[in-house]
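agent: user wants the full assembly modeled, not chains individually. Plan: 1) parse entity lines 2) check alphabet per entity 3) run joint structure prediction 4) return tokens. Steps 1-2 passed, two entities, 448 residues total. Proceeding.
--- entities ---
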Amino acid sequence: MKNLIDIMQLSVEELDELIATAMDIIADPAKYSQVCRGKKLATLFFEPSTRTRLSFEAAMYELGGNVLGFSEAQSSSAAKGESVADTIKVVSCYADIIAMRHPKEGAPLVAANNADVPIVNAGDGGHNHPTQTLADLLTIYREKGGFEDLTIGLCGDLKFGRTVHSLMSAMSRYKGVKFVLISPEELRLPDYVVDDVLKGRNIPYEECTSLEDAMPKLDILYMTRVQKERFFNEADYMRLKDSYILTPEKLRTAKETLSILHPLPRVNEISVAVDDDPRACYFRQALNGKYMRMALIMKLLEVKPW
Amino acid sequence: MVIGQIKDGIVLDHITAGRGMEIYDILGLGKLDCTVAMIKNADSVKLGKKDIIKVGQVIDLDFDVLGYIDPGITVNTIQDGKLSKREHLSLPERVKDIIKCKNPRCITSVEQELRHEFRLVDREKKLYRCIYCESEAPKHYE
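--- prediction returned ---
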């Protein structure tokens, strides 16, 4: 594997290998603290994303490597009209690996086609965000001990939520996985995802509009934000917005073993009062993202602890 | 109606009826100096009706373009009055610069030098997706 552009590039075996590496890093971080010594990660963020960039940078520093880059297009040559291909060819001369975020869909693939060094897609518009899915998967693995026989509730904006689509694709490869799709009618999972991921692979699923109804069945609840700008009129938004806010009251019927995930940032879709509930995993999920990025950087650079 | 046999050239057979002129234009056959015959709505056992194009010289054809537009076409190459080669087209795995991605969020919408490339994801449904943003190809040729 030379690049990571889409989560489905990773086979189940490669994913297992990344998770095993991440678990070993967690168990013995000192063993990995110099594994990328002398290596440089370029973080090319053509649109701002503080947490993803910091997670990549923290990952590289914890492997003993160095970081260079920019955090918005205005401070790069893209502002002067340089193409992605040219930017990447130049940065390939300075860095050993590149993590790239870009507002246009497919830009990381253009980068991969022109780079001499590995490219990691750190988010391309509303399209792919594979390292978020890696964070989600490590969280599920650590919380549940594996990926099989889980009922996963996906709640909120299932239409535009790229993290939801990627997670579904990745999880649909495991035995005994079921999905409960909880969303307003306006933000239902698109038909092409239903056809490609669910019907195409005979994955059991149900759709509903009530979070309360779905709650008792769930082993995992993956929350996303219902954004006002996704609605055609404000009245519909006002009618629905509170239905998809997770509160301690709504958790009353949930399993004791439920794991609540959220890709973050949260606005108001999970009440702060839920944060102290041991079932809330979203801050641990952010930490897991760093471990998986460490494992990924090591795999792409083909380095191992000595 | 009788159209004479050609000695050296190409016969595009089994063109979907009504598509002949479109293919004539896309292949730029109007610019050739040789004899070119367009037959519309010829009787066909297989299709009922079909179009046929006869070109009086052997020319290079982009089979990917032809296969994408009309995968049922048969390309017969004639040399010295005899059939020297018969090729059945099919939907190509990839098409480059035949169709354009219409997604305004796709990188191809801002980087003019990039080739517009689509890959076949479902042969039965004739479904292509942009290799960059995965948007469905426009259904222009259906």
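agent: reporting back. The beta strands of chain A are 40-45, 66-70, 97-102, 119-124, 151-155, 178-182, 205-208, 220-223, 259-261. The radius of gyration of chain A is 20 Å.
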